[in-house]
Design goal:
Layout (H helix, E strand, L loop, with lengths): L4 E2 L10 E7 L4 H5 L1 H4 L4 H8 L3 E2 L4 E2 L6 H10 L3 H4 L28 H7 L3 E5 L11 E3 L8 H10 L5 H9 L10 H19 L8 E7 L1 H9 L4 H25 L3 E6 L5 E2 L2 E3 L1 H7 L3 E3 L5 E4 L1 E5 L3 E6 L5 H16 L5 E5 L1 H7 L7 E5 L3 E3 L8 E2 L6 E2 L13 E5 L5 E3 L2 E2 L3 H9 L14
Parallel strand pairs: 2-7, 2-8, 3-21, 4-22, 5-6, 5-7, 10-17
Antiparallel strand pairs: 1-21, 3-20, 8-20, 9-19, 10-18, 11-12, 13-14, 14-16, 15-16
Helix pairs in contact: 9-11, 10-11
C-alpha cells in the first residue's frame, strides 16, 4: 500500500462514469489562492475545494513541460520518451512537414481512451490534444490546417465516427480547431463537449458508463499573450470555470450522480524576460545553412524549441567534427552567466528525466529565458515573442500543474507527491480498466 496522501480516495463497487477536464496551464495558486491571485472560481471551489480531493502543492509535470507531450503523458501514464511525443511540433529543421504538430495519439502504448473502451465504457473526447486516431467511440480531435472552414472538413474526416463534427456544427456552429485558442474558441469547445454529452452519451448511458476527456485552451493562450497574472488570463479562467460547472452539472444529470470528475492541468507557466536562439550560434559555426530568405536548406546540428527547453539533434551522429563544434558552443553557453542557459542535458540525463530520446543534447533555460528557433539576428533579445511560457524545467515550482478529483466514492482530502503520469492510472483504477504500460501509480492505493 502506498502512503502518499492525507485523506483517502475510495472506489465504489459500481462503476462510475468519468469526466476528465484539462485546463491548459492552470497553476495551483489560482485554485487555492483565489483572493490573492484576483479570481473567483465558484465551481472549482464548490466541487473540489469544498468536497473533493486535491493536490494543494500541485502536481509535477513531465520533461518537457509542453502541451502535447504533457497531454499524451496525462492520457497514457507514461513519460514522453516512452509514448514518443516529445514536443508539440514534429522535428523538422527544413520545413519538410509544413509545420505539422504531433496531433496523433501515440501507437506505442495504450491510451486511457482505448483502455476505457476495452473496460466496458463508452470512450469519448472533445478537443483533447494528441487525439487524432484515438481508439474510442466518440472522438472529436484537435487538428488544424489553416483556420478556415477546411479545418472542419479535415477534423470531421478524422473524427470517430466520421460525420460527427458536421452533425455537431449544425447545432453549435463551427467546431474550434487548434488554431483558435481564444475565449470564443473555448466557448465552442464547451458547446461541443455539452453536445457530445447530450447527443451521444446520454442516449446510451443505460448500456454502460462513459469516459469523456475535454480540453480548454484559452487561459494558457491569454497568459502567453498578456502574462501569467494578467487581467486577460484571469478573465479567461473565470469563463472556463463557468463552462466547467455547466459540464459537471449535465454529466451529473445524465449519470444520476454516479460520476467522478477530475480536473487537471498539463503544466504551469511563468513570465518571460528574454528570448534566446541557439540556432543563430549554430549557423555562425557552419552547422546550419539557409537561403536568402532565411529558410534552412541544410543542417548538421539543429535546435528545436519547447518553450524553456530545446532539443538539439545531430543530422549525422557519427559526424565527429560537427559533434565537437556543437559541444564547444554548448560548453561556452553553459559557462556564460549571461547566456540564459541553466543546464546542458546529455542523452543519458534526458532519458532519466523521461524526455527527448533522440537528442544529442537538451538545453534547459533559466527562468524567463524562452528558447526560440530563429537562425538569424541576435542570440539574446528582450523583445519578447510571448509574455509568458512553459516548457521550463519540470523541477521549477512555477511549472507545477493542478490536480483535483471529486464525485462518487471520493473523500475530501489532500493528495501529495502527485505526478502527471499518475492521472491515467488513477482514472483507470476507477473504471476497472488496464493500462499495462503505465509508469505512474494509482493514487487509489
Amino acid at each position: 500500500m502506498l502512503s502518499r496522501k492525507k485523506g483517502t480516495i475510495n472506489i465504489m463497487n459500481q462503476k462510475s462514469s468519468v469526466l476528465l477536464i484539462s485546463v491548459d496551464a492552470l497553476k495551483p495558486d489560482y485554485v487555492f489562492e483565489q483572493e490573492k491571485t484576483g479570481v473567483s472560481l465558484p465551481n472549482i471551489t464548490k466541487y473540489f475545494i469544498e468536497k473533493g480531493c486535491t493536490a494543494r502543492k500541485g502536481m509535477k509535470s513531465v520533461f518537457p513541460t509542453f502541451t502535447y507531450p504533457c497531454h499524451q503523458s496525462m492520457i497514457t501514464g507514461t513519460n514522453p520518451a516512452v509514448h514518443g511525443i516529445v514536443n508539440n511540433g514534429i522535428f523538422d529543421p527544413t520545413g519538410e512537414h509544413l509545420g505539422a504538430w504531433h496531433w496523433f495519439a501515440n501507437t506505442r502504448v495504450k491510451t486511457l481512451w482505448e483502455a476505457a473502451k476495452e473496460g466496458g465504457y463508452w470512450s469519448a473526447s472533445v478537443a483533447f490534444p494528441t487525439s487524432v486516431g484515438a481508439k474510442g467511440d466518440f472522438i472529436a480531435p484537435e487538428f488544424w490546417w489553416d483556420g478556415s472552414e477546411i479545418d472542419s472538413r479535415f477534423i470531421d474526416a478524422v473524427a470517430n465516427p466520421q460525420g460527427m463534427i458536421l452533425e455537431m456544427e449544425k447545432e453549435i456552429g463551427t467546431y474550434a480547431g487548434g488554431l483558435d485558442l481564444s475565449d470564443s474558441g473555448d466557448a465552442q469547445r464547451g458547446k461541443a463537449a455539452m453536445w457530445v454529452l447530450k447527443n451521444k452519451l446520454a442516449p446510451v448511458i443505460r448500456e454502460k458508463p462513459f469516459f469523456l476527456s475535454v480540453y480548454f485552451a484559452s487561459f494558457d493562450e491569454s497568459a502567453h499573450q498578456h502574462g501569467v497574472y494578467s487581467d486577460e488570463a484571469k478573465a479567461s479562467l473565470q469563463k472556463i470555470d463557468t463552462m466547467l460547472g455547466q459540464l459537471i452539472k449535465e454529466a451529473e444529470r445524465i449519470t444520476e450522480g454516479n460520476l467522478v470528475v477530475c480536473v487537471v492541468s498539463d503544466h504551469g507557466s511563468l513570465d518571460n524576460t528574454h528570448n534566446i536562439s541557439p540556432n543563430i550560434l549554430l549557423k555562425k559555426a557552419g552547422l546550419i545553412e539557409t537561403d536568402e530568405t532565411g529558410k534552412v536548406t541544410a543542417w548538421k546540428a539543429y535546435s528545436q524549441r519547447a518553450g524553456g527547453t530545446a532539443e538539439i539533434r545531430l543530422a549525422d551522429p557519427s559526424d565527429q567534427e560537427a559533434a565537437d563544434t556543437l559541444k564547444k558552443i554548448l560548453d561556452d553557453l553553459l559557462a556564460d552567466p549571461e547566456s540564459g542557459i541553466l543546464e546542458v542535458v546529455d542523452p543519458m540525463q534526458a532519458k532519466a528525466r523521461g524526455g527527448f530520446p533522440e537528442a544529442a543534447y537538451v538545453l534547459v533555460s533559466k527562468k524567463g529565458y524562452e528558447l526560440r528557433d530563429d537562425v538569424d539576428g541576435e542570440y539574446c533579445r528582450t523583445r519578447l515573442t510571448q509574455k509568458a511560457q512553459h516548457g521550463y524545467s519540470e523541477e521549477f515550482p512555477e511549472m507545477r500543474a493542478s490536480f483535483m478529483i471529486t464525485g462518487a466514492g471520493i473523500e475530501k482530502g489532500n493528495v501529495e507527491n502527485v505526478r502527471l503520469i499518475d492521472v491515467a492510472p488513477t482514472l483507470a483504477a476507477i473504471m476497472g480498466a488496464r493500462l499495462p504500460d503505465a509508469q505512474g501509480v494509482n493514487l487509489l492505493k
